[in-house]
Amino acid sequence: MSADVVVIHTDGGCRPNPGPGGWGAVLRQRRHVREMYGGDAGPTSNNRMELMAPIMALEALTRPVAVHLYTDSTYVRNGITKWVLGWQRNGWMTAAKQPVKNVDLWQRLQAACAQHRVEWFWVKGHAGIADNELADSLATRGLLEAVERSTRGATDLIAP
Fold first, then answer.
1. Is 50 annotated as a binding residue?
2. pLDDT number for residue 155
3. Any binding-site annotation on 40?
4. Quick check: is 160 in a domain?
5. Is 4 designated active site?
């Protein structure tokens, strides 16, 4: 693998689905490692959080590079590698003539990918792949912190 390749592992999810959600990403280039995460107090969906992880990771890159992006979401991998060009060609409608769900995030992911040379890989979740497990724990952290912020914000509105 070239030293210029950035390897990214991503994950996202909700508890429950739909509900509060979080996303996580691990970016590696040579010896450099960056961990990222975030969340939404909801309601959001597993699919939206799975999309946010690679979007945020790719948008964090400061110059065009080759990227090997690993996700445990077949929705994300198939969407960006197989379906998105057809959706775009069909005015963001599915083959069943229904509006594409999460179109805002698909468009954002497409734009982020256009800045780099991205190769997509699917990995089995919860299978002991270290950076996938780390991305999963970061996503959980993002979810918990988003819920905590929203709860704290609600209590801040209550007068003592």
1. yes
2. 53
3. no
4. no
5. no
